[in-house]
Amino acid sequence: MAWLGAVATKCHPVYNSLGLQQGAARGPVSRRVLHSGSVILETAIPDQFRQPLDLVDYERHADVRRSFHMVMGPNGRLWVAVEQGRTLSVLSLDLSAWRKETPIRITYSWCCEANNAWVGAENLETGAITSKASAERPVPLHEDDLARILFAIDGPSLTSDVTCFAFSDHVEPIGYSEGIAANALVDTEHGPRPIETLTPGTLISTHSGGLSPLVALIETTLPNIGRMRLVRLRRPFQNLLQTLDVTPSCEILTEGVDTAYLFGVEDVSIKAMHIAPFLPVTTSSAGLVSKRYNLLLAEFQAYHVAGIRVMPLALNHDPHQSASTRLSHLNAIQIPKRCGHDPASLLRHEALALLSDRYL
């Protein structure tokens, strides 16, 4: 099971039928039928448009007609249609509740063996998740069709509004992908330990000064592109004891007189992508795909990593979602929720106002 192809704005497409972890390949494209797989793309909900927006518009007439369409309607409804000959599978998802210009990550996944398919969307600002399953038998996609979309063999099939596109030969869960690359030292009851070595039950040092048991270590492997691309935080920024590679949405806790003055609270969290403009070099040296890890603690409190404090995972979805999330294997009562007294997550303009006074 692997990620097979990926492309993003200002990046060349990469493909390998054996998996991108092997590097980009120059060989022929596989013609296999993907009986299970996932397609991910990132875009933003358009501000104003009166006609349906074709995010993916692909058709091919080989032995039979094959097509793959992903369309955003003016009413905020997302449509996905896969066609092979006389077989058609159609899914729709209502995104009208999300505000315009919201950056989103859309995932379409299918598994013919399990006879299911679903489409999910993740709000990249809030982490909120929504999904819808199909009542029809899924239509498998062909690897060479997805590669033709990737390399624009038949002309552009992706609209310019799509900032990244990737596909795999496995069903990829949605949500909860923010985190930190391996080797980050997390403070535990028995001292610092690499994040990837932590096991459930380990007592983790938290912002409150206490210890909280680790419920689960969530490991995710994703293409290193778009909003999934790791950001490098170099020591000694924010008193870092080691250089860290983190996801753009990884939330880092900060405090000071200025936070109290600007926001009326002692602690706020800032996404790594809002910190990046203030650092000299933020490009990670990770490969085409990268692993990232985050903690689910019994209590929703920031934990200590290499001299900074990082926010753990918290419940961001309805436990009865149609799609599988990265926390689906856990009982919902094990997953803490954000509360009103938890540190506020700053929006981009708020983070820039705070950090500009500190570092410019």
Mind explaining what this structure looks like?
With 360 residues, this protein is mainly beta. The chain has 2 domains: 3-168, Sandwich (Jelly Rolls), CATH 2.60.120; 180-357, Endonuclease - Pi-scei, Chain A, domain 1. It is 9% helix and 38% strand. The chain is built from 4 helices and 25 strands. The protein has helices at residues 143-151, 257-263, 272-275, 348-359; strands at residues 3-8, 14-15, 33-34, 36-44, 53-61, 65-72, 77-84, 87-94, 103-111, 116-123, 129-133, 141-142, 164-168, 185-188, 191-194, 203-205, 211-223, 231-233, 244-246, 251-255, 267-271, 289-297, 303-305, 308-310, 344-345. It has a 7-stranded antiparallel sheet, covered by helices on one side. A hairpin with a 3-residue loop joins strand 5 (53-61) and strand 6. The longest helix is centred in the last third of the chain and has 12 residues, at 348-359. It is globular and about 65 Å long. The model has no long low-confidence stretch (mean pLDDT 89). It comes from Celeribacter baekdonensis. Pfam families: Hint_2. This is Hint domain-containing protein. Residues 181-282 form the Hedgehog/Intein (Hint) domain.
